[in-house]
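Run folding on both entries below.
>entry_1
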Amino acid sequence: MNEQAWPWPEPLKVLKSRSGPYLKTAEGTLGPHTLSLHCSSAPETPLEFRVFLDGHLVFEQGEATPALAWYQLCEDLGYRAEDHWDLDPALILFHQALPILAQGWEEPGLPRNDLGLPEGVVCLATVRAAWDKATQALPEDRDGDPAKDALNLVAACFKALPLRAVVFHDDPARRKDHVGTAMDAPLLGIFVQLGRGPQDRVTLAKATLNASGGQKWSPWEPGGAWRAEGREFKATQGPTEYLKAAGLQGPLPPGFPALFQEALEALAQALEPVVETYRLGYPAGIHWHRDVSARYLNQTITNVRLVGGRPVLTLEDGTEVVVDGAPKPALTQVAGAEEV
């Protein structure tokens, strides 16, 4: 893991830092932006810890994630989940930016958990810890029984594939995947990247290319093939690709493919609730839903404008929706079907 490499060309410069017995403050600049900390720990009062970006609050103790403004700044500086392995905006803030600003403090101002995060924060590190726990729990046989070679190889394969990135695709108008491959339909889904390095990686995906297609975790690489009639992805990666990415190439022992699939399903089941919690808390305008027909429920339209002759709706969470101007069939079926 390379969490200590500062990802931006602009350094974080500390302007001032104060470490008093009850009040700690720090301020620095990141390019034209100002990042500041405020920690108050007066006796018999709850600890207050706040982070400000350009004078606006972006995090305080008890929240699950930094505010949208911090994510937008990271995106402006070039953050891309598929490129910045082992990092997301929350980890950049808590593992890198805050320690730089607070390095002059006599004692830590913010209590952290075993992941080095404020209690309650959900981010890439949370998902990664769940993956590590699940892979460590895979069954193994340590008695040297040749009949159990496949079981041990499956466990070794997944343990050698650390979780490095979680990429959310959420735009129904998008016609390219995250590596630029043109798609014939909108790409919706979650792509979990595993591997020792960007050149040795595999992807565990939960995705669909259409509004009505089912979603199931599978080793699918964006840009791969799928079944048009069944509306299901074909697994474009499998045991061979996983073993290669793990550095464990060799002949497959009897029973390996079935055990591999069984382990993959168990790992996906363990990962599902954590990834879902991460997605739901993600503040960067993510509006992806399992049920696409429900993506606009309880949303308020705040603005409407024309782009290329097509109406574009701006929703209250900042999401923009391009309204399809093509003629629609008569509404003779279920109410609530998506018509935008």
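>entry_2
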Amino acid sequence: MKGLKSEIFRYLKTTVDNVLKPQKLITIRATGEALKRCSGDLPADALLSPVGAGGSLEIFGFSDTEPITWAKFLEKISNSNYRDSWREAITSVMMSSFPDHINVDNSQIIVSSDGSKAYRLILTTVTIYYNDIYDFNIYFVEALQRPDFGDAATTLLLKGLELVCRFRFMFLEDTSQFSSGVIRIKDTQKLPEIASSLLRELDLLNKDARDAKLDDPAKWRVYVSWDDLLQMSKEFRPLEQQIYEIVGRIVQSKRQPELLEPLQKELADVLDGLHKKIRPFNTKLVKQMTRKLEELVPSDDARFIGS
């Protein structure tokens, strides 16, 4: 008996006691045949299974710990502002590896349902079984949030200036891939890819504004008048909603080329209106904030340069 116990103990020492998965992980299972039929989308019966105790599905605003079908998942996120960007990111990462590609798209980033966190989607493993079952392991890795240093007022100013400039670079400069001119003449078949990128950048821009507490209009009052803020909000909010709505339709129509051309013109027209109506406010903000930045540097600091 003693010898048997020793053998059992010796065997158990070589077995796995526990496996920890500190990152949020979702395994998506579907058949290869179903993936082919869906032509770039996911099958309605594809199964999403959260792995471990990381609360992976909490990213999307619900606490399910049991597997959920893709159709049910889409139904549950249908009222979220991020539904189109979530759907496109997950689909893009998965389909970039199907059926046996090595160069996978691990560049996708999504924002959590409450807008507080950003996650990068990384496909680490695709397991293919002889019965045509595919298992895709996708990790959702939270993006690093750097700590702030120095005076709170200067930090807020620089973050605000960065957001204003990012918006300008995205929509108000002619060489941006999101400018109305570029959208209007772009190859229609590339429109869904641009739309997906635009969704991601808009989500991140709004998230960063919330993180910096710059979604509060009062924070911008330091740089422009209440009248300017009110007018800018009245002009921008409807245009932003139109962009989200049109881009969502483009993403969903990527397998229907005949729908893309009218959507291309519709998006270009809205972006053209955005350029004309918002550019004056953006320019004023850049100038006022730059002036504030200059005021932070005392003129006598120049004597230290070169010393």
